């Protein structure tokens, strides 16, 4: 096993984005704009700010435009510089030199758990983070978005327990998420604006409100021990006929223990039309105010 420092992150980008049609018919949903940048730009920035150096996108043939977004377009670069647009050209080359972004294909669309497992040949023996790109954390309020992931990476380094970021959701949204089952609910301080980490008994994927064990939803940021790959390799399809990451986490809990980390700041669901529109307006307003 390679040290406690997390340097690798998996970002699954294979989803078809059916909730975002027709916008997502020919443009990957991850490239739809939030303000003046594509949604995935913020997610990659968040990972880098938390200390990630190697990002693995898991996608398929229709998603290659995402990989291109993180590449240098040499022709565009030289055209811009020939026209004296140095500042614009520099702004496109924002990815730090010590950060790599690679893409691997999922092959079959068998679910989120299967997508994470597809990254194993690149992640190798490393422990790693997973960031779901539908969820974008508010990057404008303090530095909170990346702080969540950085906290989880430190907590993992301290006790080797995998960490799952959770946040309270409204009753009507419970059925959209993985929901945490707590052994001791007294740990939760809903007013707190600091991250706290505590043991979790398990997760239920997309329960009805009546069956939900809590209202603490999986936000889409994870720090995993490399052992999760062994559990994913043995996970069978369940809810929605898909190989669920949540089922592999439950198996990991029973042998090694897993913690939830409570989230600071706000998150936006950029994979759902209604929340996407709200997020777009929020991001655009923040950027227009910054430009003033
Ligand atoms: C996935 C996870 C779920 C999590 C959600 C966060 O579901 O399976 O546990 O709460 O992401 O967005 P999906 O939205 O991909 O169906």
In short:
With 292 residues, the chain is an alpha/beta fold. Helices cover 33% and strands 22% of the residues.
Q: Quote the beta fraction.
A: 15-25%
Bound molecules: 1-O-phosphono-alpha-D-glucopyranose
Q: Would you give the CATH topology?
A: Spore Coat Polysaccharide Biosynthesis Protein SpsA, Chain A
Taking the alpha carbons of the first and last residues, their distance comes to: 49 Å
Q: How many distinct domains?
A: 1
Please tell me what the overall shape is: globular
Number of E strands: 14
- Under CATH, the homologous superfamily reads Spore Coat Polysaccharide Biosynthesis Protein SpsA, Chain A
Strand order of the largest sheet: 5-4-1-6-12-8-13-10
Q: Can you walk me through this structure?
A:
There is one protein chain. With 292 residues, the chain is of the alpha/beta class. It has a single domain, classed as Spore Coat Polysaccharide Biosynthesis Protein SpsA, Chain A (Alpha-Beta Complex). Helices cover 33% and strands 22% of the residues. It contains 10 helices and 14 strands. The strands form 4 sheets. It has an 8-stranded mixed beta sheet, sandwiched between helices. α1 packs across α7 (144-159). The longest helix has 19 residues, at 273-291. It is globular and about 60 Å long. The model has no long low-confidence stretch (mean pLDDT 92). The structure holds 1-O-phosphono-alpha-D-glucopyranose.
């Amino acid at each position: 096993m390679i040290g406690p420092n997390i340097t690798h992150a998996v970002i699954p980008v294979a989803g078809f984005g059916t909730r975002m049609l027709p916008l997502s018919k020919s443009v990957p949903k991850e490239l739809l704009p939030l303000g003046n940048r594509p949604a995935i730009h913020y997610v990659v920035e968040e990972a880098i700010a938390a200390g990630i150096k190697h990002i693995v996108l898991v996608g398929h043939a229709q998603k290659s435009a995402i990989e291109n977004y993180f590449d240098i377009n040499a022709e565009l670069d030289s055209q811009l510089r020939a026209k004296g647009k140095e500042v614009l050209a520099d702004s496109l080359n924002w990815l730090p030199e010590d950060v790599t972004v690679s893409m691997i294909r999922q092959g079959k669309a068998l679910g989120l758990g299967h997508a994470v497992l597809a990254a194993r040949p690149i992640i190798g023996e490393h422990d790693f983070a997973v960031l779901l790109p539908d969820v974008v954390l508010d990057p404008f309020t303090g530095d909170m978005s990346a702080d969540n992931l950085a906290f989880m990476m430190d907590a993992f380094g301290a006790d080797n327990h995998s960490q799952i970021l959770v946040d309270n959701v409204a009753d009507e949204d419970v059925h959209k998420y993985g929901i945490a089952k707590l052994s001791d609910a007294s740990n939760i301080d809903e007013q707190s604006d600091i991250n706290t980490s505590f043991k979790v008994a398990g997760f239920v994927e997309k329960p009805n409100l009546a069956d939900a064990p809590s209202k603490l939803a999986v936000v889409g940021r994870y720090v995993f021990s490399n052992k999760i790959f062994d559990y994913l390799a043995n996970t069978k399809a369940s809810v929605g006929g898909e190989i669920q990451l949540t089922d592999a986490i439950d198996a990991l809990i029973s042998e090694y223990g897993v913690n939830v980390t409570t989230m600071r700041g706000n998150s936006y669901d950029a994979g759902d039309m209604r929340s996407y529109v709200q997020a777009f307006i929020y991001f655009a307003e923040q950027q227009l105010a910054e430009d003033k």
